[in-house]
Design brief:
By secondary structure, the protein is α/β, with parallel strands linked by helices. It is built from six helices and nine strands, in the order H-H-E-H-E-H-E-E-H-E-E-E-H-E-E. The mean pLDDT is 97. The structure holds S-adenosylmethionine.
């Protein structure tokens, strides 16, 4: 089964019964708010899945765009949003392949997607997409399993990071502003250690 098929099946069959489900995106929203973006700022949620972050971004006055490898991820999001969904950009594609609009976003958010990229070439492709799509001076909020987190997510192997690990992946063009850990309670009673980080892209010159 391809990765796209794996994720399409999960989104089509599991609903909220997935380990990463959160009823509220507390830590993501705290870090996004800390960036002090202007109302209407464009926020891209990478590997958005069926997360409620989109509603939280709209309530905070931002303009969200969502990208996911599986179109079935967006079925429930569209249902929840109703007419509001029409004003949003839903992008279906693998983040290591999709061509995103250039310098389009003020903030790039990723919770539990980068950690699936176990090959250096995949991470390079992800960084190319990020560099293309994020405005100079834009922010990155990225979270994945911490060094003491699980070795797999959704049955797939992951790479685990601490704050310096994420900083090394993003490179010198990104300044680490803040990091935080969160122990995520899954709907099945397990606890998963997440590392959250917030970066700002340096402006050149
Ligand atoms: C663990 S879930 C996290 C979902 C969401 N970010 C959240 O926190 O609830 C990973 C999500 O990334 C998507 N995904 C996995 N690999 C991807 C890729 N290469 N490109 C884009 N999306 C991907 C999956 O379909 C899924 O929705």
């Amino acid at each position: 089964m391809s990765e796209r098929e794996h994720w399409a099946q999960i989104h089509a069959t599991k609903g909220d019964a997935v380990s990463w489900f959160q009823p509220v995106s507390t830590e993501s929203m705290r870090l996004i708010r800390a960036c002090g973006l202007a109302p209407g700022a464009a926020v891209l949620d990478v590997g958005a899945g069926a997360s409620v972050l989109v509603e939280e971004l709209l309530a905070a006055g931002y303009q969200p765009a969502l990208v996911d490898i599986a179109d079935s991820a967006f079925v429930r999001v569209r249902e929840r949003l109703g007419d509001c969904a029409q004003a949003l950009d839903f992008i279906v594609g693998d983040i290591t392949e999709v061509v995103l609009p250039e310098s389009a976003y003020d903030l790039w958010h990723d919770r539990a997607v980068f950690h699936f990229l176990t090959e250096p070439g995949q991470r390079e492709a992800y960084m190319s997409a990020l560099r293309r799509a994020l405005k100079p001076g834009g922010y990155v909020v990225i979270a994945g399993f911490a060094l003491d987190g699980p070795e797999k997510c959704s049955g797939l192997p992951v790479c685990r990071y601490d704050a310096m690990g994420f900083a090394a992946q993003l490179g010198e063009d990104f300044e680490l502003l803040e990091s935080a850990r969160e122990v995520h309670p899954t709907p099945f009673g397990a606890r998963q250690a997440f590392q959250y980080t917030r970066f700002r892209r340096r402006t050149k010159g």
